[in-house]
Structures are given as C-alpha cells and as structure tokens.
Amino acid sequence: MRGTSPTSAWSSSTRGRPHSPGRNPRRRQHDPRTGASERLPWNGKTVALPASFAAALYHAAREQAVGHRVTVSFPDSVDELTPNQVAAELGISRPLLVKLLDDGTIPSRQLPGSRHRKVARVDLDAYQKKKSTRRRLIADAMNEVATAGE
C-alpha cells in the first residue's frame, strides 16, 4: 500500500523522499529534542512519535493484521463498561456474563436506583489475566503429562 496512509509510514521513515547514497532508508531517525524516533505523515504534516508509542502502534497493527483482536485502553483510566460491552470483549454470551457477575467471579457495581450494572475496566483486565494464567497452567500440565508418557 502506497501513499500517506498511517500504516504505510511504518515501512520507511523516508517514504516519498529520494534516498541519499549510503543512508539506510529504514533506519529510525532520532530527534533528541522530542525523544521521538519515528515520523509519521499526517494531514500534510510530519508528526514525531516517541519510540515506545511507535512500537505499540506497530505491534497493534501486526496483531490486527493476523486476525487478533486489539483493544487500546489506559492503565489509569476509571473506565466502566456495560455488561453488553464486557460480553462482547470476552466473546461470551450475555447470560453467561450475568452468571459470572452474579456469583462475583467478575466484580460489578449496581447503579443507584437501577437494575443496571457497570464493570470497571481494571476488574475486567484482572479477570482476563487470571483466566489466561489458568489456561497457560493447564496447557503446561497437559504438555507435561503428554511428554512423560513418551
């Protein structure tokens, strides 16, 4: 893909400019004033990005390109989600989520004077991490049993 789309800028920081002899066009250009190491063309301007942010965007784009779901959230946000949003993010049905909320597996709070609930982003992230760790432990145990029998 060529042009000024955001995804095309990652392949080379010198896209659209002639290459100087002896200069590697894929080498990152570091700007000591801003701490930026990537430049992204955007709306006719060049935007400098911090190296860590550029790496995060690149990683997210790669994951999405292979079909993985990518969610961007801020660790210090006090974001709350509705049960429908939580069910969609977990890839489970709403009735199963309601069961998990009712038995306290995923903490939630009831809105004052209402039947509606909200789930804090940090609680959802903690549940996903716990579930991922449990799956990894089970897979490791299964691999151990399978290799012990050989």
Report strand order across the widest sheet. 3-5-4
- Overall strand count: 5
Report the structural category: alpha+beta
Q: What is the beta-strand fraction?
A: 5-15%
Helices and strands, in N-to-C order?
EEHEHHEEH
- Principal-axes geometry comes out as flat
Largest sheet: 3 strands, antiparallel
Mean pLDDT: 78
How much is the radius of gyration in Å?
A: 22 Å
Number of domains: 2
How many helices?
4
Work out the helicity level.
40-55%
The CATH class assignment of the largest domain is Mainly Alpha
CATH topology of the largest domain: Multidrug-efflux Transporter Regulator, Chain: A, Domain 2
Question: Keywords for this structure?
Answer:
single chain; 150 residues; alpha+beta; Multidrug-efflux Transporter Regulator, Chain: A, Domain 2; three-stranded antiparallel β-sheet; two-stranded antiparallel ribbon
